[in-house]
Amino acid sequence: WLVIDRKVYDVSRFSKLHPGGSRVISHYAGQDATDAFVAFHNDKSLVKKYLKSLLIGELAPDQPSFESNKKKSLLEDFRELRCAIEKMGLLRPNYIFFFLIFLHLLVLDAASWLVVWYFGISLVPFLVGIAFFTIAQIQMGWFQHDLGHCSVFKTPKWNRLLQIVVINVLKGLPASWWNHLHNQHHAKPNCFRKDPDLNMHPLLFSLGKRLSVEV
């Protein structure tokens, strides 16, 4: 069970069919998932159609609709901030900007190979080719990141399709693997054993006296 806008849903069976993966939902088992639901789903009206069949009740009036480890006032401030940002149109994508990003990635990638092909593999052309290729690969990683967040196109289908082209074809990595891990990261950021980005050696990759804890 999980809570969205004070309504309780049984997602036991649906979690296996969830497009974002079952682990993202399981991280919110028995908790309030309102903010994660809002952040992950652009088309709320479409998703709420599926929620109707999963509804099993509502929270009692005396039950809080937020996680026990979070401050209510801070949550309300962030929710107001998000509403203000949406009304200002700051979350609407600029298609010309993303087209130019994609175009310059292709130009850099092609240039890296053309330099080596035309000038040979002597030191200077080789280093120039490496520089072009490295910049292209890094920028591709950020571009597919925006696509993975469904931030470029209005519909998830086109975001996923272009993400596959960028990360699968141009970078040689599986989009499904990246989405599976990154969705969990944003569902439970900085929560040990739930955020895959924290699954690193506790001594070699930890800074400061206070380490991440399991929530």
Unreliable stretches covering 5 or more consecutive residues: none
Overall pLDDT level: 87
Counted by DSSP, the helix tally is 8
CATH class of the largest domain: Alpha Beta
Total number of domains: 2
Give the SSE string. Answer: EEHHHEHHHHH
Number of strands: 3
For the biggest β-sheet, the strand order reads 1-2-3
Polypeptide structure, described:
The protein is mainly α and 215 residues long. It folds into two domains: 87 residues, Flavocytochrome B2, Chain A, domain 1, CATH 3.10.120.10; 79 residues, no CATH class. The protein starts with a strand and ends in a 28-residue tail after the last helix. 16% of the residues are buried. The model has no long low-confidence stretch (mean pLDDT 87).
Summarize the structure.
Keywords: Fatty acid biosynthesis, Fatty acid metabolism, Lipid biosynthesis, Lipid metabolism, Membrane, Transmembrane, Transmembrane helix. The chain folds into 2 domains: 2-88, Roll (Flavocytochrome B2, Chain A, domain 1); 95-173, no CATH class.
Structure characteristics:
single chain; 215 residues; mainly alpha; Flavocytochrome B2, Chain A, domain 1; 2 domains; 3-stranded antiparallel β-sheet; 3 strands; elongated
Topology:
Elements: E1 2-4, E2 7-9, H1 22-26, H2 34-40, H3 44-52, E3 55-58, H4 72-87, H5 95-119, H6 123-148, H7 156-170, H8 175-187
Antiparallel strand pairs: 1-2, 2-3
GO cellular component, one term: membrane
Pfam families: Cyt-b5, FA_desaturase
GO biological process, one term: unsaturated fatty acid biosynthetic process
